[in-house]
Here is the input.
Amino acid sequence: MSSLAEAYSWINLRYLLQGLLVTIEVSVISIILSFILGSILGIIRYIRFPFVSAIVGFIIDLIRNLPLLLLLFFTYFGLPQVGIKMDPLTAAIAAMTVFESAMIAEIVRSGIQAVDLGQMEGARSVGMTYWQGLRVIVLPQAMKKMIPPLVSQFISLIKDTSLATIIVLPELLYRAQIIYGQNTRYMVPMFIALAVMYFVVCYALSLVASGLERRTN
Amino acid sequence: MINVFTQHWQELLVGFGNTLLCSVIALFFSLIIGSTFAIFEVLPYKLLHIIGRIYIEVFRNIPLLVIGMFFYIVVPQFIVTLDGFTAGTIGLTLYTSSFIAETVRAGIQAVDDGQMEGARANGLTFMQAMWHIILPQAFRYVIPPLGNQFINLVKNSSVLAFVAGFDLMYQGDTIASTTFDTFNTYIVVGILYLIITLPLSYYMRYLEKKLA
Here is the structure.
């Protein structure tokens, strides 16, 4: 029992919580960047510009079908070979943003496609331009359909930040490993702490999402 | 890039095989576990419902890496020694089963209520109706999302690299760190992953369109 108290000493807990802060920082920045980039890519893919949309679509498909871990390795260990060097934080954010943008682009595209075609036709027939129809009529309706898949994507993004431990980003999992590396008796308490912290953050987000969903309906 | 492949094709092939193997094993067991918990959730028993909910929420909200490392690092200390491949595959199975449970539950609930009522009115028990009437229909709804889960599974299997699971990612990492040709090695590894995931992903999109 005393080892449990030692494992959860304030020094260790503070060290872990700082890691949680890094995890949240990386997640929030990546979520914001990939939401912006993903929406633009998704709209490009939906509108079907000749050539551009096909190429964008293919690149999105390539990235979506690769493991995020591979992109992380490539960004941090592969790119320096061609002269692009990044610190762990930047590399993690860059890799996650590229990967998540591709995932979000797909969510945005299918969200827009799920809106009934009659909506756009109606908007055009009352005199709106294509862009006005898209912005004022179609996108707000698509947004409602996109919320649940977007939130589960964000949750998986938060969980995926744990992969960045391999490029020595001092996030939650990395710090837990450091603590139980000093004393193996801390191993079980650290894994419990990890599980609880990740669970609380992710579950809280999913609760907020279902609340949001209920309000928009 | 060609060099990486011609010089290290044996290691890469072993990794490719292991990635496929652990994905298929994990898919098989997570289908069984996931469907069981999905049925728990639609059964009219409060206790089973709560157990199912807890299982799904716990494994959905904890990173796969943490689950995998738990089986690789913690479990051997107290219970039984596991090699990296086994530990990783167990982690993958538990993690994926929670997503599959959600998918299957949505499929079951998408089947019209009248089907169950009709089956019960004809004298079938709840379990008979579930097995003969509801599940076969639900299966049709869940094929495209299950295919996507399998794609995720293949991608997620890369965490075996953390626990020395000798999968594609692990082998690629080993090659990269011995030859120092990181850039090209990771591109080759990426192409090998795409060989599995890209055709599947296009096929699932085609199926979704066809079934919709």
Chain B touches chain A through 40 residues (CB under 8 Å).
